[in-house]
Structures are given as structure tokens and as C-alpha cells.
Specification:
It contains ten helices and 15 strands. The chain is globular.
Length: 254
């Protein structure tokens, strides 16, 4: 098992239990104590956990960005059908921007048959997956490293994105509200997504139905800023309050 996958499993276990001893982690995941201690030190440096005497606690900050490692395993049965439909919108020879969302990450395996793509991302995990799975031109922005999102943010990342004009951007957000629009956790991550949207001819949001009807801390747009939304079929979308969004929605069965 590679290091990233091992740390993802530790984080998933920590989220479920909040506090665990090192011995409990070793027993539940069948990792050696030395390996667990090394991984825990790295996770603490990334501010994802807090080490205590003989154990560790999960760092749960409701107003901060949720760690990518925890988001990756959430609602996969909803995310993958959206990703498959999104991939059908991609054609050979296109320039594609991908944000750091875990829903967008699921698109990558469905792009294997596309030829001569150029993919631009600010996400280290997505860049790694693309390099492993696809034959294409790949550009990663660089910039200030954002550990929870395994992504690059800040002025340098935004400047690099503004050098490109993409055919399509695929992105997601933390929350969508009929009045407050698209919102996300943190201004730096949201600004990257706004730049990607500005630099792309088509702006496609992937969001499972659990993200609708709630608001996060930073606003980055509204329905008029997107050309399409790919989401799951859900009874809530029959309500009049979603009429503006429904005009650009593509519904996918889970």
C-alpha cells in the first residue's frame, strides 16, 4: 500500500472515532507501530490530527476546509455517476481545467479513451492520478501549498491559471443555496475556482444532491455563472426555489 493510501485510511479511521491510541490504529489497520507513528507525525504537521500521549485526536475545524483524504471516501456511489456523465462532455484535443474537488477527481478514469487532451489543475493528487492513468499534456499550477486540499492556492497559482483559456472546467463546491449561491470553505480555494471559471468557455459544476440547501463561508458565484450542473435525481429539485438552477441541470441516477 502506498503512503498516501495508508494515511487516507488512518484519517478515515480517525474521523469515525475522533480519538484512538496508536495501538488501536495498528490493530485495526494491520500497520506496524513505526509506520503508524511516522504517518501520524506527518498528519500532525499538516494540521489534520493532534498527537497526544500514546494516541491522537482528529482535528475537526467546522469553519476550515475539510481534508481531501476524508472527502475522497464520502458518497462515492453518488460521485462516480456524475463523473461518468461529465467525462462524456470531453472530446479529443480539448483543454480541460480540473479543480481540487474529490468529485472531479472521479472523472479521470473515464477519460482514458480521449486523445491529445491538455489538463490543467491546481491539485497535487489529481496531477498524480492523471500522470499515472492518462496519456496527455499535464500542467499543475504550483503556488502556495494548501495541505487539507492537497492543492496549490494564492497569487502564483491564480496567475498561472490566467495564462490559459480552457474549453471546459469541471469543479465542485461545498454548498449551494438558492439565495446565497455557490459557497465554499475558505477564500483562497474559492478564488482559484473563480479564476478557472473565468478562463473557461464551459463551466460545469458536479455536485451531489447532499450539497444543496446549505451555505458555507465564502461565496464564489450563482447559477448565472455556470453553463451546466451535473447532479443526482432528488425530490428536492421539484421545489420552486430551485427553478433557476433546474434550467441548467443534468440529472443522473445514482
Amino acid at each position: 500500500m502506498i503512503t498516501v493510501e495508508r494515511r487516507d485510511k488512518i484519517l478515515e479511521l480517525m474521523k469515525e472515532n475522533n480519538y484512538l491510541t496508536i495501538q488501536e490504529i495498528c490493530q485495526q489497520l494491520c500497520f506496524s507501530e513505526s509506520t503508524v507513528r511516522r504517518d501520524l507525525k506527518k498528519l500532525e504537521r499538516d494540521n489534520l490530527i493532534r498527537l497526544t500521549r500514546g494516541g491522537c485526536m482528529f482535528n475537526d475545524h467546522p469553519n476550515l476546509e475539510t481534508p481531501q483524504a476524508l472527502r475522497r471516501g464520502t458518497n462515492l456511489h453518488l460521485k462516480r455517476p456524475l463523473a461518468r456523465v461529465a467525462a462524456e462532455m470531453v472530446h479529443d484535443n480539448q483543454i480541460i481545467m480540473l479543480d481540487c474537488s474529490t468529485t472531479v477527481m472521479e472523472i479521470i478514469p473515464f477519460l482514458k479513451s480521449r486523445k491529445n487532451l491538455t489538463i490543467i489543475t491546481n491539485c497535487l493528487t489529481i496531477a498524480s492520478l492523471v500522470a499515472q492513468q492518462l496519456e496527455c499534456s499535464l500542467f499543475c499550477t504550483g503556488g502556495k501549498y494548501n495541505a487539507p486540499g492537497a492543492s496549490f492556492v494564492g497569487y502564483s497559482a491564480e496567475r498561472e491559471l490566467r495564462n490559459w483559456f480552457a474549453d471546459i472546467v469541471f469543479f465542485s463546491v461545498n454548498s449551494i443555496d438558492e439565495h446565497n449561491g455557490l459557497t465554499d470553505q475558505g477564500d483562497e480555494v474559492a478564488r482559484i475556482k473563480k479564476v478557472m471559471m473565468e478562463q473557461s468557455r464551459q463551466r460545469i459544476m458536479l455536485a451531489d444532491y447532499t450539497k444543496f440547501g446549505r451555505t458555507a463561508s465564502y461565496r464564489l458565484g450563482s447559477a448565472k455563472d455556470m453553463t451546466g450542473i451535473i447532479t443526482n435525481e432528488a425530490p428536492c429539485f421539484d421545489e420552486p426555489r430551485w427553478s433557476e438552477y433546474r434550467k441548467i441541470m443534468t440529472f443522473v441516477k445514482a
